[in-house]
Design a protein that fits this description.
The protein is an alpha+beta fold. It has helices at 2-7, 72-75, 86-101, and strands at residues 15-23, 28-36, 42-49, 56-61, 79-81. It is globular. The relative contact order is 0.19.
Length: 109
C-alpha cells in the first residue's frame, strides 16, 4: 500500500484519502479510502494476502460496509497477483483510480 500511495502523489490536486486496517474471518490487510475533491465521490481499495491462494488480493469498489469491508459482489471481482508481481498490482490499482476519476492518466512503474 505504501508503494501505491507514493505513486498517487500526482493525483494530490484531485483526491485525498485515508488508510485503515481491516479484518474479517479470513483476510486482514489495509483499506485505502479515496475521495474526489471536486465531486465528493469516494472509492475504496482493499489489499491483503489471500489465505487460500497465498497471492495479493486487490478489491476495488465505490461501496463498503459499515465495518469497512468490501461487498461480497466486489470480492467476487477481486484481482489476484503473485507476491513477486507487486508492480502489476500497483498498476492495476492505478487503473482503478483512473477509472474513478474518469481520467486517462497513465502512470506505470
Amino acid at each position: 500500500m505504501n508503494a501505491l500511495i507514493k505513486e498517487l502523489q500526482p493525483y494530490h490536486n484531485e483526491i485525498y484519502g485515508t488508510l485503515e486496517p481491516f479484518c474479517d474471518d479470513r483476510e486482514q490487510g489495509l483499506m485505502l479510502s479515496l475521495y474526489n475533491q471536486l465531486t465528493n465521490d469516494s472509492m475504496y481499495l482493499w489489499c491483503c494476502e489471500d489465505k487460500v491462494k497465498q497471492d495479493l488480493m486487490i478489491v476495488s469498489s465505490k461501496d463498503k460496509t459499515k465495518q469497512n469491508m468490501y461487498m461480497q459482489s466486489d470480492k467476487d471481482m477481486a484481482q489476484y497477483f503473485s507476491k513477486s508481481s507487486r508492480d502489476d498490482a500497483i498498476n492495476y490499482s492505478l487503473d482503478q483510480v483512473n477509472k474513478f476519476l474518469d481520467k486517462d492518466l497513465k502512470i506505470n512503474i
